[in-house]
Amino acid sequence: MVRWRRLIGRLAAALVAVTAGSFVLAVPAHAKPASDVTPYVVGGTLAAQGEFPFMVRLSMGCGGALYSPRLVLTAAHCVGRTGTNTSITATLGVVDLQSSSRIQVRSNYVYRAPGYNGSGKDWALIRLATPVTTLPTLKIATSTAYDNGTFTVAGWGATREGGAQQRYLRKATVPFVSDATCNSYYGGQIIANEEICAGYASGGVDTCQGDSGGPMFRRDANNAWIQVGITSWGNGCARPNYPGVYTQVSTFASAIASAAASLGG
């Protein structure tokens, strides 16, 4: 894990997003090494076609979720600065990234969370050049009501620490871990109001490199999917006593909605 699974670690935060012109190199959240830029679901199973139709694969090696027909919610560490960006390709509508039925749309703008510096506030919106109206969006939690229980994570990231990203979407379930417990594992690095942890003390199941930016979600009171987290970072992948660390979406729901409105909804 280390701070970028996800991509790389908190110490490598400055390297998490490197921009060269319009090109963005994303460093994953689940690995501390600056060389690790691809997180995957470890200990999971293959997702069925259509099971999570809001899932998005981003060309820099991250995941995301369709927030609105023209916006993808992802992690700040996956993108460069706020501004025009036509370098990202979003792949949607399929579990197999090589499927002939995949939808692919280019980006035209990136909005990175104000104040993001590699620690906390790990969210961003990517605006698509054309709207995707044939797929459902994933609503986000606006309160902490669903920040507990068992969550689902999904992504095309590695199936083992240091492994390669995957062609097929994978999924897994992970239990909530309290801030106090998570901080005891991470030596006080967790930002309680901005991050939420999930995973097993025994390890074995986790997001990994290449899963960065993807959603952590669960069912709400109406049995609809609701996003509670964004895959952010961790120490290695699926290691015992090192749960995954996710951006706590409910904390930033208002800011995300405001940014979305400024980008056209």
Question: What do these coordinates show?
Answer:
- By secondary structure, the protein is mainly beta.
- The chain has a domain at 139-252: Beta Barrel (Thrombin, subunit H).
- The chain has two helices and 19 strands.
- The protein has helices spanning 179-186, 249-262, and strands spanning 4-7, 17-20, 23-26, 28-29, 45-46, 55-58, 62-68, 71-74, 83-84, 89-92, 103-112, 124-128, 139-140, 150-155, 170-177, 195-198, 215-219, 225-233, 244-248.
- Strands 14-15-16-19-18-17 form a six-stranded antiparallel barrel. Strands 6-7-8-12-11-10 form a six-stranded antiparallel beta barrel.
- It is globular.
- The N and C termini lie far apart (33 Å).
- Residues 41-261 form the Peptidase S1 domain.
- Residues 1-31 form the signal peptide.
- One of its GO terms (biological process) is proteolysis.
- It comes from Micromonospora citrea.
- This is Trypsin.
Shape: globular
CATH architecture of the domain at 139-252: Beta Barrel
CA distance, first residue to last residue = 33 Å
Name the CATH superfamily classification of the domain at 139-252: Trypsin-like serine proteases
Question: What structural keywords apply?
Answer:
34% strand, 2 helices, 265 residues, Thrombin, subunit H, 19 strands
Topology:
Layout: E1 4-7, E2 17-20, E3 23-26, E4 28-29, E5 45-46, E6 55-58, E7 62-68, E8 71-74, E9 83-84, E10 89-92, E11 103-112, E12 124-128, E13 139-140, E14 150-155, E15 170-177, H1 179-186, E16 195-198, E17 215-219, E18 225-233, E19 244-248, H2 249-262
Parallel strand pairs: 13-18
Antiparallel strand pairs: 1-4, 2-3, 5-15, 6-7, 6-10, 7-8, 8-12, 9-11, 10-11, 11-12, 14-15, 14-17, 15-16, 16-19, 17-18, 18-19
